[in-house]
Amino acid sequence: MSVGLGALALAGAAAAGGHGTTHSGSPVVTPTPTPTPTPTPTPSTGNGNDAINGNGSVTVGGLLPGAGWQFSTDGGQHWKPGTGNSIPADQLAEGKNTITIVQIDKDGKRSEPAVISVVKDTVATQPDIKTSTGTGAINNGGSVNVDGIEPGGKWDYSLDGGKTWKPGNGSSIPGDALNEGKNHVTVRQTDAAGNES
After folding, report:
1. Which of 58, 109, 53 is nearest to 83 (CA)?
2. 3-class DSSP assignment, residue 130
3. What's the CA gap between 43 and 163, in Å, rounded?
4. What is the CA radius of gyration of the chain?
5. pLDDT at 192
6. Would you say 42 and 118 are in contact if contact means Cβ atoms under 8 Å apart?
7. Of 2, 11, 83, 140, which sits with the fewest C-beta atoms within 10 Å of its C-beta?
């Protein structure tokens, strides 16, 4: 019969009257960190401005089943409980908001904070329009200049009192896009948050 070296050493210790040492127990398990939430503005403008209007929200993704979450708009001094999976616009101030969000799993462990900056914008600026000549008359080589378009905004114009609209391009309406004679030009802006002037 062959005996393994480990078994032979243990038998020798027992025969000599020694006291063996027995190790037992479960392996050490490192707790899994609670995932950090992933906030995004909704609807997303897709242009890097992270702006929402009064009907928008900040969607909070990455939430675990049974977990809760909180958010703060003052750098963590005060916290509000999250509801569902979003922060509605009416919970934010007009202008820039820096929002801190943490997830709390069912065991009470808090995640690392997620921070997002979102602009709540509920008013679009009314564009300023004037002729390139500075008078009320232009020829085909002139234009109607459009100023006051916000970054990320777009504009449209109408020649029939708003019944139909054409997309604006650049910062002017060329003279050859107008009708011969008197024109009533209406310009509206849609800003990055989706507000219309």
Report:
1. 58
2. strand
3. 27
4. 33
5. 84
6. no
7. 2
* Spatial CB neighbours of 57, under 8 Å, sequence gap ≥ 6: 41, 42, 86, 87, 88, 89
Interatomic CA distance for residues 175 and 166, integer angstroms: 14
Q: For residue 15, which phi and psi values (nearest 5 degrees)?
A: -65, -30
Residue 3 is predicted with a pLDDT of 37
Cα 20-25-30 angle, rounded to 5 deg: 140
* CB neighbour list of residue 187: distance below 8 Å, 6 or more residues apart: 127, 129, 146, 155, 156, 157, 158, 168, 173
Distance CA 143, CA 140 (A): 8
Q: Which of 100, 92, 123 shows the shortest CA–CA distance to 189? A: 123
Token pair in block for residue 165:
């609209």
Confidence of residue 22 (pLDDT cuts 50, 70, 90): low
Q: 86 to each of 82, 141, 149, how far by Cα in Å?
A: 7, 51, 30
